[in-house]
User: Fold 3-hydroxyacyl-[acyl-carrier-protein] dehydratase FabZ from Azorhizobium caulinodans.
Amino acid sequence: MSEETKADETKVLDSIDILRILALLPHRYPFLMVDRIEAIDSDLSCVGYKNVTANEPHFQGHFPNNPVMPGVLIIEGMAQTAGAICIHAKGADRKPSLVYFMTIDEAKFRRPVRPGDVLEYHMTRLNKRRNMWWYRGEARVGGEIVAEARVGAMIAEE
Assistant:
C-alpha cells in the first residue's frame, strides 16, 4: 500500500452547521435553502441538507391544499450548498461573499418534494476557473433522486 493510499484512507471530511453557513453566505430566511453541510471534501464535493417544513412561505401558493416545493428553490439549494463549500474551502473567517448564479443546465425534476421531506444536495465539482465554479448536483429524498442539474456560479470578492 502506497503512502498516498494511506493518506486517502485517513482523510477526515469536514462539516458545517447553520451558524457557519450564515457566516459564509449572504442568504437569509426565507431564501436560505440549506441547513447543514457534511462530507465536505474541500471544494470538490459535499452533501447539503434542507429540512423542508410546512411553515415555508412558498407553500401558501404552491399549491394550496397540495404543497409542493418549487423546483427552482431546489436548484437554488444546490447552488447555495456549492457556494458555501467554495467559500469555506478558501478558509479564514470572512463576511459573507456575494455568490452570483451563472448557469443552470440539464435540470430535471423527477418527483415532488413536500413538507416533512429532508432534501440532500449531493454536489460534485466539475470545473473551476479563477473565481468561477461548476458543479453537478443531485437532490435526493430518502435516497431517491428528486432533481438534478449542473450549476455554475461566480464568487465576487468585495
Remarks:
- The longest strand covers residues 144-156.
- Strands lie at 14-16, 36-41, 45-51, 98-109, 118-129, 132-141, 144-156.
- The chain has a mean pLDDT of 91.
